[in-house]
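Everyone, study these two lines:
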Amino acid sequence: MTQTSPTRRAVQIRGRAFKALILTPATPIDDWFVDIDASLRRSPTLFDGRPVILDVATLAPDRLGLQAVLAGLTARKIRILGIEGAAPALSDLAFPPLLSAGRPVATIEIPVEPSEADLTSLVVEGSVRSGQSIVHRGGDVTVMGSVSSGAEILAGGSIHVYGALRGRAIAGAARNPRARIYCRKFEPELLGIDRLVRTAEDMGPAFRGRSAQVWLDGSAIKIAALE
């Protein structure tokens, strides 16, 4: 009996277009990195999770020059998806792939954090009841009473609660990783700073019922007693 081999399906290869940020280094390169650092201070999460293409057509670097630029970007946690405008001789596995024929789109404006003079504080006299939501993206929020379970505070700056914190508190909503949360009695349902959050289940009982402060340490939310 003759057996026939099963038909093998061909590997499918498809093209797909994605949008990416384009970085164009300029000389002197040290000054360009100073500008990059200033942009990151204004918007620390500017490049987080975004594909970035390095356009070196104007810079025209040699191998060592390109390595130096990539090393500087890596030190700032900016990952490069591909390189545009580089010499064909730089096409090897030591560098991201060389790209061409990219189509320009609108320039992205770097968001600017409000200056100290622009920040304002909101003081809530009394407590925030269940179902209430206090939103103040322009600065700190101070609650003279408690924040009930089911209530929410969202602030662009820090949050100060002089009573019990039993609801949800999100500080640094204006992309301010330096914001903090302070409370007299720590019993929150959810905490957030910048874009990181922790739920009650994640926090454990160690600080429950105590005076506490919450801050962001790198990519982790930290909690410490104030007593």
